[in-house]
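Re: your question from the hallway

Yes, I did run it. Sequences:
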Amino acid sequence: MAAKTRPKSDAPDASDRVSRIREGVTAAILEHRLLPGTKLGEDEIGDIYGASRTLVRTALQQLAHEGIVNIEKNRGAFVARPTPADAREVFEARRLIEPAIVDHAIDAASPAWINRLQRHLTEEREAELRGDARASVRLSGEFHRLVAEMSGHSIYLGFLKELIARSSLIILLYRRHDTPACGTDHHAGIVEAIGRRDGEAARALMLSHLQEIEAELFLKELDAADRRLADVLGA
Amino acid sequence: MAAKTRPKSDAPDASDRVSRIREGVTAAILEHRLLPGTKLGEDEIGDIYGASRTLVRTALQQLAHEGIVNIEKNRGAFVARPTPADAREVFEARRLIEPAIVDHAIDAASPAWINRLQRHLTEEREAELRGDARASVRLSGEFHRLVAEMSGHSIYLGFLKELIARSSLIILLYRRHDTPACGTDHHAGIVEAIGRRDGEAARALMLSHLQEIEAELFLKELDAADRRLADVLGA
DNA sequence: CGGGCGAGGATTGTATAAAGTTTCGCCTGT
DNA sequence: ACAGGCGAAACTTTATACAATCCTCGCCCG
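Structure:
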């Protein structure tokens, strides 16, 4: 943004206590350790991170703005619970943005970056090999963030961070349980196309990768019983 | 969002005092009444809106997350000052997203919506006719937001709100002063194409509209003197 | 007379306390 | 036995007080 010199609220500045809280909660959500609907009490989190409620509150507000936490007035903060409609919107947005990101990534592709991506791929493979589902899902999302960082497009990066976090919740809620290994192979193909500077192929691979993820979802209303009631009766 | 029933932090719920502050400041920025770099003191704003610093602070944090305010640690909040690089990113993102929004808007086009758009066009023309520059620039941005609302795509809407606000700052900073009437005619053409349900034409018109706005900008570093110094010397 | 230094004032960051709202258990009345 | 209401506890919201940091301005020294 305008101030590259200042560690903005969004910066990965770990010395900031608010950032630590936000990143801790985000990581927990990305690793599927926090389930949708979970209450995030201020005291509770404050005790965990040794911070006062003031700081916890600002962290939660930031997460709310990112769409992975819902703050309900006088009731508190809860891990968001995306609806099927939300899911479709998120993936449509990703199908639109990520090919554009890949294009920029190719422009910025340097040996150092390619190396970084390949190191990430091995990390993904290792996690998958050892059956670490939590690391797998986290790394899978991080791959996309890495490509966005590589693109150097800070606005796309910001948007995508939001979309990835929400995608994680969506996958947790709606993924069919019968689908085995996820897209590490896809990721490898994308890296390879980026390395070749083949924009056409890279965009196409990214697109089909996202389509495949979405195709693995079962986007039907869950908890039909109380969900219906909430929708029918709610304001 | 997951909770259509709850007025989220982002909702246009005017009864909320934080929202009032946020919307007041946003409006001032959109109308070019607050200039980039202006300091937004907490006490100052608190006095204006009769709110304690706690509420002002959360409003400012939300605005910072939207990218129209920069919060510098221990120094306060300032109206953002997008760089030319930021400007290019913002308009690239708009060129990507808004055609997609227009597509959805066509799907949702009803007589009521078309009517709403046309009423907006007359408002724009009236403001332009009476030479009200502030209303003009505000309504010009609102047109795009209106189309996004019409699309029913809440994620695109959220992204675009951010992009519009930043665009307003960018136009204020970088617009060539020799350009006369802005794009009310363009807007009319877009509405007409939407009314015809002609997606091809509507997308093309939106794209060329955005390109024209961007072409009217002079994206060179301003304040070469202290700007250069700040970039060279600043951390 | 210019530049460094330091105290004072102002402003932000953080914590804590007061106020308001919701929730849940319990108790009463039918 | 059960529905409904009352009340206390827990939590969020808001305000205020305190601490830390930064900026300004004047003073002193070279």
